[in-house]
Design goal:
Pfam families: DegT_DnrJ_EryC1. The protein is α/β, with parallel strands linked by helices and about 375 residues long. The protein has 2 domains: about 10-250, Type I PLP-dependent aspartate aminotransferase-like (Major domain) (Aspartate Aminotransferase, domain 2); about 250-375, Aspartate Aminotransferase, domain 1, CATH 3.90.1150. The protein is about 35% helix and about 15% strand. The protein has 13 helices and 15 strands. The protein has helices at about 10-20, 30-40, 55-65, 80-90, 110-115, 135-145, 195-205, 240-250, 250-270, 300-310, 325-330, 340-345, 360-375, and strands spanning about 50, 70-75, 95, 120-125, 145-150, 160, 165, 170-175, 190, 210, 225-230, 275, 285, 290-295, 350. A 7-stranded mixed β-sheet has the order 1-9-8-5-4-2-3. Strands 7-6-13 form a 3-stranded antiparallel β-sheet, with no helix packed on it. It has a 3-stranded antiparallel β-sheet with strand order 12-14-15.
Length: about 375
């Protein structure tokens, strides 16, 4: 089975992990700081706070933003459920706004219509690696006294108007799961443009521990003393995984280039095929494509999906609208809330896309898609 996504590990990655294992630090050591500096350099020199997953990054980012009961978070339903769930776990009300019908990204005007005086955060997802117009979302959020959070789980390495993802939002969250644009096995990061947000993120990901004497209430207790002023959790990324991430970042440009080549090869092979729609592009975007979201028309998505799986093509669907999950349905969210997102979901199939995919693999996928759609 040809998977839809897979990590790309080379000898340098293995050597980096082995070196970390042989060092004095398996966690809370120098490899973490090195990785955070490398992530920052790749994302417009915005300070980076490493965490244990993309979901942890969202949970930490909402904590840094001060999200809590009585607040609203406006976001997209066309995302992995964590984008919304992490806000709900802080007690916020999630307000789903519809997406652009061609890109699957949160629609700026739909988000504008969903905002109220209680909106604390607008969270847009860079679906498939295509940035969700970050300049417009930052302007929208700030005009309403809210923060802009860019869920860039799909898009590290992408650029918008010549600037890297991470350089636009108040808070940007990244994921380093194996299928993502680079990996630490499990891991993520929060980018924060404001020092106060960065500090709150660092505190929350480390139990809220305050170690600086000048910030403590009882600094004379002793040199061992540490305090918790606001409760946090342990979301510390170990040195072993951070070392893998630093090694992977050295190939981020090559990963982006290869992903773009594969995406273009799919476009060329499928754009003339009746019954499907190839992914949309935006003139200002240079995506590090995470997904190739093919749209299968005329209600034939499941038929084509099952045909491709039977042919050994490990396609996936990204994503069930977040409010369709029973956890949100039980809170009163109903189907039909965001028609564009639901229509996109009902057509979408993610074709295999990862750097080690060969041209021959891509051509095989194209051939099987054409066979599944045309029946010949």
């Amino acid at each position: 089975m040809l998977p839809y996504g897979r990590q790309s590990i080379d000898d340098d990655d293995v050597a980096a992990v082995v070196a970390a294992l042989r060092s004095d630090w398996l966690t809370t050591g120098p490899a973490v700081a090195e990785f955070e500096a490398a992530v920052s350099a790749a994302c417009g020199d915005v300070p980076a706070v490493s965490v244990t997953s993309g979901t942890a990054a969202l949970h930490v980012a909402y904590a840094a933003a001060g999200v809590g009961p009585g607040d609203e978070v406006v976001t997209t339903p066309l995302t992995f459920v964590a984008t919304a769930a992490a806000a709900a776990l802080h007690g916020a009300t999630v307000v789903f706004a519809d997406v652009e019908p061609d890109t699957g990204n949160l629609d700026v005007e739909a988000a504008r219509a969903a905002m109220t005086e209680r909106t604390r955060v607008v969270a847009a997802v860079d679906y498939a690696g295509l940035p969700a117009e970050p300049e417009r979302f930052a302007e929208l959020a700030h005009a309403h006294g809210a923060l802009f959070l860019e869920d860039a789980a799909h898009s590290i390495g992408s650029r918008w108007a010549g600037r890297p993802v991470g350089a636009f939002a108040d808070l940007t969250t990244l994921s380093f799961f194996p299928t993502k644009n680079l990996t630490t096995a499990e891991g993520g990061a929060v980018l924060a443009t404001d020092p106060g947000l960065e500090r709150r993120a660092r505190l929350f990901k480390n139990h809220g521990l305050v170690r600086e004497p000048d910030a403590q209430r009882w600094p004379d207790e002793g040199p061992w003393h540490q305090e918790v002023h606001e409760l946090g959790l342990n979301y510390r990324l170990p040195d072993v995984l951070a070392a893998l991430g630093t090694s992977q970042l050295r190939r981020l440009d090559a990963f982006r280039t290869r992903r773009a080549e594969i995406h273009a090869r799919y476009d060329e092979g499928l754009r003339d095929l009746d019954g499907v729609r190839t992914p949309a592009h935006r003139a200002d975007a240079e995506p590090a494509w995470h997904l190739y979201p093919l749209r299968v028309l005329d209600g034939r998505r499941r038929e084509v999906f099952e045909s491709l799986r039977a042919a050994g093509i490990g396609v996936q669907v990204n994503y069930i609208p977040a409010y369709w999950h029973p956890a949100f349905a039980d809170l009163g969210y109903r189907r039909g809330l965001c028609p564009n997102a639901e229509a996109y979901y009902e057509q979408e199939i993610s074709l295999p896309l990862f750097p080690d995919l060969t041209d021959a693999d891509v051509d095989r996928v194209v051939e099987e898609v054409r066979r599944a759609v045309t029946g010949r």
